[in-house]
Amino acid sequence: MAEDTATTEAPAEEETDEEVAAPEPDPARDAALAMLTELLGDAIVESHIEPGRDLWVRVQRDAWVESIQTARDSLRCYWIDFLSAIDWMPSPYGREMEAEQDWIIHGRDIKETPAMESGVAGGETRFQVFARVYSIENNLGITFKADLPDDDLRIETLLRTYAGINWHEREAWEMFGIHFDGHPDLRALYLPSGFEGNPMRKDFPLLARRVKPWPGIVDVEQMPEVESPGDDAPSEEGGEA
User: Fold this and answer.
1) 107: left (phi over 0), alpha (psi -120 to 50) or beta
2) CA 173, CA 101: separation in Å to the nearest integer?
3) What's the CA gap between 30 and 24, in Å, rounded?
4) What is the largest CA-CA distance in the chain?
5) Following DSSP, what letter does each residue of 37-65 receive, concatenated?
6) Which of 75, 156, 167, 201 is the most buried (most CB within 10 A)?
7) pLDDT tens digits along 165-214
8) 5: Cα separation from own chain's centroid
9) CA–CA gap between residue 110 and residue 157 (Å, rounded)
């Protein structure tokens, strides 16, 4: 009888674990994603909701502007937070470019190159461009992502949708080499004229780090010692004690 009792109680414990692991509901973001899916259809490749935090939507590259305009017009996302890009390729230089703290925690040597990962809402290419829009009225933010082919790093500008995106796209062009079709003034913000390369790409070598590691433990300097007043300290009257 004891064995039968144990056998019948096991499934109940599994059901309890599944109930605990059930995702927290987020009606506002669920509704926003449902509306975008209805309006955009196949333009949405993948999505992810983290309840209470954000909604991520990966869209087709040729639907980049249409998708974000839809969020602006249908969900009242009149504010654009930022636009940037990311290079998901693992660094070909291993841990050479990392801080000394990372060496201590993870070890300095890598025996194999880690696989490329692309974060929430997925990704199929090394480069992605992403932008976050926000509805103050609905207290809702949406992060849009789009894959960019390695041999064709270009996407349509959002400048006609959000005028404030100008410098964001210039920075992504300068740092990642992504061309924004239709942008009238793609020129450097930070780098000197004639600079070659895009410093935010993983395969851009930071030559200075071949000489000195990233700032970290190696750069910590001891504070100068302060001598405590002693017998030789001057008295309050200005004379010697």
Assistant:
1) left
2) 31
3) 11
4) 97
5) HHHHGGGEEEEEEETTTEEEEEE-GGGHH
6) 75
7) 999 999 999 999 999 999 999 999 999 888 889 999 988 877 666 666 55
8) 51
9) 39
Give me the residues paired with residue 134 across strands. 79, 141
Do residues 143 and 56 touch, judged by C-beta distance below 8 A? yes
* The domain defined by 22-214 carries CATH number 1.10.3720.10: no
**Rounded CA separation 33/49 (Å):** 9
Structure tokens at 225: 């010692």
Q: Which residue has the higher pLDDT, 4 or 81?
A: 81
Are the CB atoms for 219 and 208 separated by under 8 Å? no
Enumerate the H helices of 145-239 as residue ranges: 166-176, 208-211
Rounded Cα distance between 78 and 91, Å, is 37
- For residue 156, the cross-strand partners are 181
Both tokens of 150, joined, read: 């390695």
Pairing status of strand 179-181 against strand 154-156:
parallel
Burial (CB count within 10 angstroms: exposed 0-12, middle 13-18, buried 19+), residue 83: buried
One-letter amino acid identity for 99? A
DSSP string, 90-146: PPTTTTTTSBHHHHHHH-S--SSPPPP---TT--SSSEEEEEEEEETTTTEEEEEEE
